[in-house]
Amino acid sequence: MRAETARADVVRAVRSGTAWSGTAWSGTVRGETARGGTAQAGTARGAEPEMAAPASAVPGRRAAGVAAGPPVEEHPCPVAVPSGTTCGYLLAPERRDVPNSRTIKVGYAVHRAPQASAQAADPVVYMSGGPGSASLQLTGFLSQMFPGRDVVVLEQRGGRYSEPRLSCPEIVRGVVDTLSTPGPTSAETAPLARQALSCQSRLEGEHVDLRGYRTAEIASDIVDLRAALGYQRWYLFGVSYSTRPMLLAAARDPLGTRGVVLDSLLPAGARWYDESSAALTATMTKLGIAARFDAMVKALNAHPATYETRDPLTRRRLTVQLNGDDAATILGEALHETDVIPIVPALVDGLASGRTELLQPLVDAAGDGLTSHEWGLYYAVQCQDQTPYNSFPDSRSPRLFTGVVDAAVCDAWDLPAARPEPDLLAPGASVTTASSDGTSIEGASSQEATSEGATSEEAASEGASSEGATPPILVLGGQYDPTTPPEDARQAVSAVPGARFAEFAGVGHAVFLSSACSRQTIAAFLDDPAATARACDPGAAPYPIVRPGGLLLTSSAYRLSQSPIPLGVPAAFLLVSVVQLVAGLISLLRRRGGGLSAIAGLAGVALCALSALSLSAIQDWTTLAIGVPHALAWYGLLALVSTGLSIVEAFRLNAAAARIVPVLTGLAFLAWLYGWLLT
């Protein structure tokens, strides 16, 4: 439902990797999943895909005097990557707290910058979120973001491009079966628990120790990879869940940390499950639709809606029943998508008014989100690091599907809670904040204590290398992100020396995937962490919000994207109108009449032209998933004029039999427009 670009392909392929949610219900209106798709993310912005050669034993540029780190193993890149990229595995213990623990393989890719610039810039290491989402498909996109640096992309242990791969289709089947039966999910957790135990038994039968897959071990992989690749220091770049292991890695490896970029931060002390419902309601309040959102949830809880979609595992047709809590969960995930955010107010208003069919695009996209994560890894992390510190109150409203599912799975798995460890976000000094309204508040920075005359680059390097000093930190948040609210991130860094926060207007989760301004901000931070000047305006929203009443609500345009066959009616009407106009003009030139025919044809052509202009003015094509401009209804009056004149021409004395064709096509178009498209 929107113009395809290389960057958009990347977003569709990896957005799931940034979602901190139990079921990754990806609310998009695209025909393919926005989370976990198969788009060639490595070819963003014109980069040519290329299967890279195997990595050398030590693919990085080892600094003089740096001792050899943990072992790595060369391996062909499993995804399309730009030239200059090599791939391999970090060989790591499955559990570092257990002597003689078995060795696992953690996938990574290294894209080398050109030799001329590589010596001047510290590398950056990136990991996707989830937990349990893939990272390597972003290699090309990131190399375009940071053309003058080595870019290291690290998979999570247990992830798609690591060994073992902790997939859990059994849990996906349990979720789908639960949604296929009537009744609230909270009353149907027994099938989920059985499927979760089935997955756990299978993984344990494959000698997987789930206690080795948690944030502390993932952070150690980050630290070990720097030593293995021979980098003296690097920047850490995490998004959503991966902000946590990145912060922990920076705390453990201060001498090797040049700086930290945190996109969509969820602070370590946050109780995500307990706070998620209130965070979603707060986001709806920002959008000005809190009352309509509550009305929608209550209406659908009282009368659940039925939808036909596809099973994400078998691709067969599937009927699901969704109540208000389920719809709220889907909408919360939809707010991750920058092109979906603008239509949420109009969509919620329509759902609250009983137009439940408008949710169909998000329902279709949601199923694909269930195949985007490695759910064994996801639950190994969540059940040890997150769920033990939440109470899961029954009184919250809406009761989000994600919390219900995750609580059921973690109760079944019964993994021990991981011991929390301190990270960099300890109280300290103030920060420099750039808010969505474009204003900035200057605060203290760790670089202010450096000696006079030192450059900002030298100061930041010295600050990052000094024992006990906090490295510079850049935190980014999306204005409408209900998963990792920007308010929580701003508060978490408000007293941290050397930290800055920037909120970006009109976007949701994983800001860097949707906002060009955020990518410029990150690049400027890496060039000079001490600089406070803005690279662009974070207050400029990419799309205007569509308010209730701003669209003529209809699901017909979305159905056209699924099957374009009904477009044959307006195509035939346009063709007949053109022929009618040309034939009428020729008759006029030959002085044989034809004036009515020419006017009828002109009205039909004008209708099509005006409609095309109205649609082309839409900035966000996702809008068409739930409605069309009101002007189309008024332009349809031209079809009425055209058809009326054609009827007069067809029933004139001695009129040719062919004159009936414009009449029939006109009547068919009117029925299509007012009886199908606009209803």
Round the Cα radius of gyration to an integer and report it. 28 Å
Mean pLDDT: 84
Q: How many alpha or pi helices?
A: 23
Name the strands of the widest sheet in spatial order. 1-2-3-5-4-6-7-12-13-10-11
What is the subunit arrangement here? Answer: single chain
Biased composition (Polar residues): 430-439
Region (Disordered): 24-49, 421-490
Protein name: Alpha/beta fold hydrolase
Keywords: Hydrolase, Membrane, Transmembrane, Transmembrane helix
What can you tell me about this protein's structure?
The protein is α/β, with parallel strands linked by helices and 679 residues long. It contains 23 helices and 15 strands. An eleven-stranded mixed beta sheet has the order 1-2-3-5-4-6-7-12-13-10-11, sandwiched between helices. A two-stranded antiparallel sheet has the order 8-9. A hairpin with a 5-residue loop joins strand 10 and strand 11 (440-441). Helix 5 packs across helix 14, helix 20 packs antiparallel against helix 23 and helix 22 runs antiparallel to helix 23. The longest helix has 22 residues, at 568-589. It is elongated, with a radius of gyration of 28 Å. The relative contact order is 0.11. The model is unreliable at 1-65 and 428-467 (pLDDT under 50). Residues 123-514 form the AB hydrolase-1 domain. Pfam families: Abhydrolase_1 (PF00561).
